[in-house]
Specification:
Structural class: alpha/beta
Helix content: 55-70%
Distance between the termini: 5 Å
Strand content: 5-15%
CATH architecture of one domain: 3-Layer(aba) Sandwich
Strand order of the largest sheet: 2-3-1-4-5
Bound molecules: adenosine-5'-diphosphate
CATH topology of one domain: Rossmann fold
CATH class of one domain: Alpha Beta
Length: 193
């Protein structure tokens, strides 16, 4: 079983690479951003609350996203493993994820961190916003806020996973196929458990 965290700032390419990885390795893709946007589309109370935060480029409260992930783990017993995309984003989320996996007698295998420079991130996100229509993808001020939140609250998780010997840096510039190749090379080296 492989439980992988795809890590990196907004626009690093986590969603794109996750989509490819789940096909190749038959893992379940858990993207908190996608789940939250699903709640918004369905007009749920949770979605309405989350949208307020997301539209400002701020993180949604930990307890909300932790409960979402907990439910998804319960809904997928017997899966070959999970790709966590956009989660965890804070220390509290990382600690909660470790606990949830431990309850299921499993653990994070590795955290792959896609490195991409800020200017390239902004360029990609604005490009994506034109197609996706995501309200948080069009305003450069909001995009910068998301990157700021990442640097302040999420980037420190690198040390959390380094301390567990699970951190692996991946070059996130360049060709999508090339980055996919780098990720696969890492995953293929993971011990099977
Ligand atoms: P990106 O990584 O490109 O910003 P996401 O779809 O992962 O896109 O996230 C979009 C927004 O959803 C975030 O800016 C944040 O408001 C919210 N969000 C997603 N995942 C989390 C999380 N784990 N914790 C808190 N907020 C989250």
């Amino acid at each position: 079983m492989h439980n992988i965290i795809l890590f990196g700032p907004p626009g690093a390419g986590k969603g794109t690479q996750s989509a490819r990885l789940i096909k190749k390795y038959h893992l379940v893709h858990l993207s908190t951003g996608d789940i939250l946007r699903g709640e918004i589309t369905n007009g749920t109370a949770l979605g309405l609350e989350a949208k307020k935060m997301m539209d400002q480029g701020l993180l949604v409260p930990d307890e909300v996203v932790i409960a979402m992930i907990s439910n998804k783990l319960d809904q997928n017993p017997g899966s070959k493993g999970f790709i966590f995309d956009g989660f965890p984003r804070t220390q509290a989320q990382a600690a909660a994820l470790d606990d949830l996996l431990l309850e299921k007698a499993t653990a994070i295998s590795a955290m792959y961190a896609l490195n991409v420079e800020d200017e390239e991130l902004i360029r990609r996100i604005i490009g994506r916003g034109k197609d996706s229509g995501r309200s948080d993808d069009s305003d450069p001020v909001i995009i910068r806020k998301r990157i700021e939140e990442y640097n302040k609250k999420t980037a420190p998780l690198i040390d959390y996973y380094k301390a567990q010997n699970k951190f692996v840096a991946i070059e996130g510039h360049g060709d999508v196929d090339e980055i996919f190749y780098l990720l696969c090379k890492q995953i293929d080296q993971l011990p099977v458990f």
